[in-house]
Specification:
2 domains, 9 helices, single chain, Jelly Rolls
Length: 235
């Protein structure tokens, strides 16, 4: 649940290299500042639910959000993680479809809501913004295709190694080479696509093989090259 209102400054936020809104003109940034609504969310808060009809998109100003689908047996499948500068919920707005995922905060976040009418106006009047949004959608589609291929063709062990490399690439590590994202074992299972017990066992094996070190939820990468070879990651 939202606990307080906050207002990130668009003039600063839009200069972030990750933000799609860097393509807006000064006038459009002012419009965005006027039209948006921002709030602080705690870990565990739901931003929107799968199957709901969205009336806007969300820009992550701070924190981490996971997007997931719920299967017929109630098991979650994590599709992606969104972080500072990412925009979520926009595809359903543009397509007029119901939300295909649920968005849940996993690290305390500041998130801005952009009404559908504002997003559509930017797309109609700013070709650079439209092209950037199209490129983001295409990139996400490519990642989704790779994800599906991985689930179908890789073993769970290979998939877990690939996910560790993905998390390092997306969120980085601190000075001690510890991943800058903290996930529960269940969340690891939900992105790998396996049982929690299997992830616990495999992480323990990776530790024994000295690929990683474990300290609760903290994971230190020791042998990135070996994890890449195991996960068939070539870039």
């Amino acid at each position: 649940m939202k606990i307080k209102q906050v207002t990130p400054i668009c003039d600063e936020c839009e200069k972030n290299i990750r933000s799609i809104f860097k393509k807006l003109t000064d006038e459009e940034v002012n419009e965005l500042t006027f039209e948006k609504g921002c709030a602080f969310y705690k870990r565990g808060d739901i931003i929107y639910h799968e199957g709901n009809r969205p009336n806007g998109s969300y820009c992550i100003s701070k924190g981490i959000v996971k997007l997931f689908k719920t299967g017929v047996e109630g098991k979650d499948q994590i599709i992606k993680f969104a972080k500072k500068g990412d925009i979520i919920g926009y595809r359903s707005v543009l397509s007029g479809e119901l939300s295909c995922t649920t968005a849940k905060v996993i690290e305390d976040a500041t998130i801005c809501f952009i009404p559908s009418s504002t997003m559509i106006s930017f797309m109609k009047n700013n070709s650079d913004f439209s092209l950037e949004l199209m490129q983001i959608a295409c990139t996400e589609l490519g990642v989704a295709n790779s994800f599906i291929t991985g689930i179908a063709q890789k073993t769970v062990r290979e998939r877990l190694a690939e996910i560790l490399i993905y998390l390092k690439r997306e969120f980085g590590v601190d000075d001690d080479n510890v991943l800058q994202i903290s996930l529960t074992r269940e969340e690891f299972a939900n992105i790998v696509g396996t049982a929690t017990e299997s992830v616990i066992r495999l992480l323990s094996e990776f530790k024994d093989d000295k690929y990683i070190e474990l300290n609760g939820r903290k994971i230190k990468i020791l042998e990135e090259a070996k994890l890449k070879r195991l996960g068939n990651v070539f870039n």
